[in-house]
């Protein structure tokens, strides 16, 4: 498996210049665009398709802080199952509080509160990114990096739930507006 960082001519680091990553991705994607290989053999078309899929996977991995963290840990030789119970009592309590708050926001149909909640999650994600980077840069703290990556995964899932709730509440609001007598 090729190194994703080398593929994009980037240093192996948690912090990346996402503009540089996107620019390099577009350059490489043009090289394997299917339209360039319409007249090529089936074998060549399949190779190009595989290279394009690998390029997309590499890009998706590196542009996401959580996926990038997981990838760095895997490159370091850490065996990381996708789902693992987090043995972190403080964070488990925080998870429960966030879930309760999200449930309250849903039952109250509180879009303004949801915006505040989203901001809280964004701040927490940024702090986790900084903490992971610090652990990653300090070899003596690398074991703690896995714990932080697990927290990052949880926040990604919770953020996804928030986006789904936001869409649901927007749909409900639209339906209420459209069914209101004029």
Automatic annotation (TrEMBL):
<dbReference type="InterPro" id="IPR009073">
    <property type="entry name" value="HscB_oligo_C"/>
</dbReference>
<dbReference type="InterPro" id="IPR004640">
    <property type="entry name" value="HscB"/>
</dbReference>
<dbReference type="Pfam" id="PF00226">
    <property type="entry name" value="DnaJ"/>
</dbReference>
<dbReference type="InterPro" id="IPR036386">
    <property type="entry name" value="HscB_C_sf"/>
</dbReference>
<protein>
    <recommendedName>
        <fullName>Co-chaperone protein HscB homolog</fullName>
    </recommendedName>
</protein>
<comment type="subunit">
    <text>Interacts with HscA and stimulates its ATPase activity.</text>
</comment>
<dbReference type="InterPro" id="IPR036869">
    <property type="entry name" value="J_dom_sf"/>
</dbReference>
<comment type="similarity">
    <text>Belongs to the HscB family.</text>
</comment>
<dbReference type="InterPro" id="IPR001623">
    <property type="entry name" value="DnaJ_domain"/>
</dbReference>
<keyword id="KW-0143">Chaperone</keyword>
<dbReference type="Pfam" id="PF07743">
    <property type="entry name" value="HSCB_C"/>
</dbReference>
<comment type="function">
    <text>Co-chaperone involved in the maturation of iron-sulfur cluster-containing proteins. Seems to help targeting proteins to be folded toward HscA.</text>
</comment>
<feature type="domain" description="J">
    <location>
        <begin position="3"/>
        <end position="75"/>
    </location>
</feature>
């Amino acid at each position: 498996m090729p190194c994703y960082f080398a593929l994009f001519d980037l240093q192996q680091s948690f912090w990346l210049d996402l503009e540089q990553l996107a620019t390099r991705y577009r350059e490489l994607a043009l090289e394997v665009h299917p339209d360039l290989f319409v007249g090529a053999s089936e074998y060549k078309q399949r190779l190009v398709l595989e290279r394009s899929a690998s390029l997309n996977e590499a890009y998706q991995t590196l542009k996401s802080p959580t996926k990038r963290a997981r990838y760095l840990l895997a490159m370091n030789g850490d065996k990381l199952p996708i789902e693992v119970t987090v043995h972190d009592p403080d964070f488990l309590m925080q998870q429960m509080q966030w879930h309760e708050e999200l449930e309250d926001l849903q039952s109250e149909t509180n879009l303004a509160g949801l915006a505040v909640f989203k901001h809280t999650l964004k701040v927490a994600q940024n702090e986790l990114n900084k903490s992971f980077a610090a652990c990653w840069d300090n070899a003596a703290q690398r074991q703690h990096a896995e714990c932080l990556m697990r927290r990052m995964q949880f926040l990604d899932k919770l953020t996804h739930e928030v986006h789904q709730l936001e869409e649901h509440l927007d749909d409900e609001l639209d339906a209420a507006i459209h069914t209101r007598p004029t």
